[in-house]
Design goal:
Layout: H1 2-17, H2 23-43, H3 50-72, H4 82-87, H5 95-122, H6 130-151, H7 163-169, H8 173-189, H9 194-215, H10 229-234
Helix pairs in contact: 1-2, 1-3, 2-3, 2-5, 2-6, 3-5, 3-6, 5-6, 5-8, 5-9, 6-8
């Protein structure tokens, strides 16, 4: 639990440091909310194998925090994270796009690597982490609807003629989570084939990055639409 508390403290610190309209700040607030929910589940005994679940949650979070640290010193970023960090101040990108692009990078790429790293550190097979993985994944999926409701602009977020509706509806947390588990199993099966594992990881990174670029397509604000609730709170 201490490791989870430390990553929560770091995310809170970032929330205070980053400008409110920064795209990375939008994702950070979203991720902080999800991580607080995971911590409550741990405290309430709702996650199977709590030690393993806490380890997975911490290793997972540190992959994002490492990207923040790399960006701060100008080090190269994983391909999957570059769209968010390069577009973080773009005026044509909406808050919900920033949030989903960060989640796409983190779940689509980082989660698989976090499962493998956690299994190695605990000396177990990934299958031993599946219960914790599934429950943490459930928290992510349960949070997706709230993220969309909070950050989608009005007055009608379900307007089928709105390009933003089409854009965000094309991405699914549940499908991304399921793909991450399959990728983790494949990476684990390649652990004695380092060159193949490296190639697979690079292609996974590139594929997730491609999705991120689409999610961050700049969109013009439609006449008569109001700002997202998040924007109103920040102004």
């Amino acid at each position: 639990m201490d490791r989870v508390d430390r990553v929560i403290a770091r995310m809170r610190s970032l929330d205070e440091e980053l400008p409110r309209h920064d795209g990375v700040a939008v994702f950070n607030r979203t991720y902080l909310t999800v991580t607080l929910r995971v911590r409550r589940h741990l405290a309430d005994g709702l996650l199977p194998r709590p030690r393993a679940a806490a380890a997975l949650a911490a290793v997972f979070a540190h992959r994002y925090l490492d990207v923040v640290d790399r960006d701060a010193v100008g080090a190269p970023l994983p391909v999957c994270w570059r769209p968010l960090f390069r577009s973080r101040h773009h005026p044509g990108v909406r808050p919900v796009q920033f949030a989903l692009a960060g989640i796409n990078a983190h779940v689509g790429h980082d989660l698989a690597l976090a499962v493998v790293a956690t299994a190695r550190s605990l000396g177990c097979e990934p299958s031993a982490l599946q219960g914790a993985f599934d429950r943490i994944g459930d928290v992510l999926v349960e949070s997706e609807e709230g993220i969309r409701e909070e950050l989608m602009p009005g007055p009608d977020p379900l307007d089928v003629t709105d390009p933003l509706t089409h854009l965000v509806a094309g991405w699914s947390m549940e499908r991304s989570r399921d793909a991450a588990w399959s990728a983790a199993r494949l990476l684990w099966s390649m652990r004695r084939l380092p060159e193949l594992a490296e190639e697979f990881t690079e292609r996974l990174d590139a594929g997730v990055g491609l999705v991120g670029r689409f999610l961050l397509t700049p969109l013009e604000r439609r006449p008569g639409s109001r700002p997202a609730a998040w924007s109103l709170l920040c102004d």
